[in-house]
Design brief:
By secondary structure, the protein is mainly alpha-helical. The chain has three domains: 9-85, Four Helix Bundle (Hemerythrin (Met), subunit A); 90-144 and 173-189, Winged helix-like DNA-binding domain superfamily/Winged helix DNA-binding domain (Arc Repressor Mutant, subunit A), CATH 1.10.10; 191-238, Orthogonal Bundle (Arc Repressor Mutant, subunit A), CATH 1.10.10. The protein is built from ten helices and no strands. Helix 4 crosses helix 5 and helix 5 crosses helix 6 (130-140). The protein starts with 8 loop residues before the first helix and ends with a helix.
Length: 238
């Protein structure tokens, strides 16, 4: 087929045969992604498109077998479709890519740390700010949406409440929860002495003089240390 010029009937016949022979393989790849928010038929059509592109662009003299060339092309076409067309609400591509990277990093860090990572740890791993990470978390909720008129309660029960009726107002507690997680990460990064000072001052209610006695320093030094620690923590929110 590659040796024949474009437009020759024999070339077109061979092209159709190659595509038809490999359509079951393309469907097999598509089924791996068919549970990700779109119908199986949509993923199959996208896989066929990748297969046709692979057939048209394959060079047998390059040294790679056809399946070795076609597989990444089919998978790439499916992933592009998954990225661009299966979100219920339009989300910038940067945010779509960040949500995917965030999930992978969270899984890897959970294995390495033996616990779920903090926002600061995730942000540092991905090389982004905590604000971007929070925005990506919000964006991930836009993948699937539900109608506000969807009834809530047991199926078949009439006159029940709708989803829209259950929505609350803006809650400042969300911002406090985020700040608390950021603060926890910042405190974890402090030295042992600084963490002891915070514990004694703000959790045990000890005076600066009492703390100074424990640490063997003056009350003035404790005051300066507390001011320095608080300044470092505030800078972490910047």
């Amino acid at each position: 087929m590659a040796a024949l010029p474009a437009g020759v009937p024999e070339r077109e016949r061979l092209r159709d045969e190659v595509v038809a022979d490999h359509m079951p393989y393309a469907r097999h790849i598509a089924r791996r992604y068919s549970t990700r928010g779109a119908s199986p038929e949509d993923f199959e059509q996208v896989a066929y498109l990748g297969l046709v592109k692979a057939v048209d662009n394959f060079d047998p003299d390059h040294g790679t077998g056809f399946l070795g060339y076609a597989t990444p092309m089919i998978v790439g076409e499916i992933k592009r479709y998954f990225r661009d067309a299966t979100w219920s609400v339009h989300v910038p591509r940067h945010m779509q890519e960040l949500t995917g990277a965030m999930r992978k990093a969270a899984d890897a860090l959970t294995v390495d740390l033996g616990r779920p990572p903090t926002l600061m740890e995730l942000a540092e791993t991905l090389g982004v700010s905590t604000e971007e990470l929070v925005a990506a978390l919000d964006a991930s909720e836009a993948y699937n949406t539900a109608s506000l008129d969807r009834p809530i309660g047991r199926e078949g029960v009439e006159d029940g409440a709708c989803l829209g009726e259950m929505l609350g107002e803006e809650d400042p507690g969300y911002d406090r929860a985020v700040d608390r997680e950021v603060l926890r990460s910042l405190v974890d990064e402090l030295g042992e002495r600084d963490r002891r000072i915070l514990l004694m001052r703000y959790f045990r209610g000890m005076t600066q003089s009492e703390i100074g006695e424990r640490l063997g320093v003056s009350q003035m030094q404790v005051s300066r240390l507390i001011a320095k620690i608080l300044a470092e923590l505030r800078a972490g929110f910047g």
